[in-house]
Amino acid sequence: MPFTLIYYILGVVLYIIALPLLFVLTFKYKYKESIPARFFLFKNPRFNSNDKIWFHVCSLGEARALKPILKELDEEVCITTITHTGQEEAKKYRAEVRYLPYEIFLPFWIKKQKVLVVLEAEFWYLLFVIAFNKGAKIILLNGRISDKSVKSYLQFAWFYKKMLSRVEIIYAQSEVDKNRFLALGANNIEVIGNIKLAGEITSTKEYTKPKCEVIVGGSTHPTEEESILEAFVEYRKTNEAKLIIVPRHPERFDSVYKLMEEQAQKHGFSLERFSETQNFSSDMILVDKMGELNNIYAVSDIAILGGAFRTDVGGHNPLEPAHFGCKIITGKHFFHQKELFKYVHHVQYVESDEILKALQNASELPPSMVEEKIDLQKVIDKIKEIKNDGN
């Protein structure tokens, strides 16, 4: 109790200090909905329901990974997210959806639920403590501790031990993750693999594939588009191909279009915004619509998967381009997706300045593919067992 009180007071102090910055960030497109909801409770009331199953996820990928679980549970649930993209994905389910408030609001915001299922590495101390104290059994699902962060976790093992002592069971992604959780003092850990392997990967629209080779830069981040564009310009000198770029974050659509426009004008390429044309008639296409990436993978030959050419992102999900038979090229910094890449074969891992060489080598390689599956039944059974306990 004394530690929790001290932690709460520090949280209040940090909140007061950060108020000017939070106010400024509310005017940025990326945060215009999430920051008012999370830090000022704007249009973010408590759940209407008690005694339900509550899932907490961070962003789009984790929200999407819930689909096979929610399909089997077949009941209305509660879902909290951190990001706007996660929120939009969660709203597709039969669920009450909210943003998770900043921790100092949680003692007054959380209602008693039967089960709290927290995905991956969403370790918010007061979320665990308050939910536990209000009677929720906590499951950590798809638990992971990345190579990049393990050292800092171990330095504060005493803190994470306090938090994880409230957890009923941890379903870890790998044996490596299990051992890291054990080192933090956690108990009752089972390795089930990455739950994203259980997700159904589908396209929502069918587009006609261009007759030439199609290269897609998927889920790209700043600096990655420049590297992809430079490689494409050189590749086009000896190959007939189109380049489609799908930035990870919608607030970057305009800035990425300007980068593409500069290269198009310089080299005589045609360029289009997908939102305006809905086709692939130009040499370069910016996909400036959300929810289209799988549809684009379905008509692509090569996928340059973003998020791993930088050191600070950790890569993105390779299962989707592999499912559609793309030949995957990605960077070497995929630490957040390490477990998934373990199951995907025929991937080229390169640095930014090696993308051109990887494109040239792609003709000699088979499409990337996924060979593994995961059984989520024990997870679903556990959630139902806890939910029905005492009913």
TrEMBL record:
Subcellular location: Cell membrane
Any GO CC annotation of this UniProt entry: plasma membrane
SUPFAM superfamilies documented for this protein: UDP-Glycosyltransferase/glycogen phosphorylase
Catalytic center residues: E62
A GO biological process held by the record: lipopolysaccharide core region biosynthetic process
Site feature location: Transition state stabilizer: E120, K196
Domain 3-deoxy-D-manno-octulosonic-acid transferase N-terminal residues, every copy: 35-197
Pfam families: Glycos_transf_N
GO molecular function, one term: Kdo transferase activity
Protein's pathway: Bacterial outer membrane biogenesis; LPS core biosynthesis
The keyword Ribonucleoprotein belongs to this UniProt entry's keyword annotation: no
Enzymatic reactions: lipid IVA (E. coli) + CMP-3-deoxy-beta-D-manno-octulosonate = alpha-Kdo-(2->6)-lipid IVA (E. coli) + CMP + H(+)
Keyword line: Cell membrane, Lipopolysaccharide biosynthesis, Membrane, Transferase, Transmembrane, Transmembrane helix
Ranges annotated as spanning the membrane: 6-27, 115-132
UniProt entry tagged with the keyword Ligase: no
Enzyme Commission number(s) from the entry: 2.4.99.12
Protein origin, superkingdom: Bacteria
Functional summary from the UniProt entry: Involved in lipopolysaccharide (LPS) biosynthesis. Catalyzes the transfer of 3-deoxy-D-manno-octulosonate (Kdo) residue(s) from CMP-Kdo to lipid IV(A), the tetraacyldisaccharide-1,4'-bisphosphate precursor of lipid A.
Listed PANTHER family: 3-DEOXY-D-MANNO-OCTULOSONIC ACID TRANSFERASE, MITOCHONDRIAL-RELATED, 3-DEOXY-MANNO-OCTULOSONATE CYTIDYLYLTRANSFERASE
Family, as annotated: Belongs to the glycosyltransferase group 1 family.
Protein name, per record: 3-deoxy-D-manno-octulosonic acid transferase
Originating species: Sulfurimonas marina
